[in-house]
Amino acid sequence: MKTILIPTDYSQVADNALKYATELAKFSNSKLIFLHVYQIPIPTGEIPIMMITPQELEKENQNRIRALERTIHTKTKGEIKTEAIARAGFTIDEIKNVIAEKNVDLVVMGITGEKVREILIGSHTASLIKQTQTPVLVVPKDSKFKKIEKIVLACNYNETVNAAAVEKVKTFAQLFDAKILVLDVEKPEAVPVYENTVAGKSLEQLLTNVDHGLFYTSAEEITDGINVFADEHKCDWIAMIPHKHNLFDRIFHESNTKRMAFHTHIPLLSVHD
Question: Could you give the domains of the chain?
Answer without folding.
Answer: 3-140 (3.40.50.620), 150-266 (3.40.50.620)
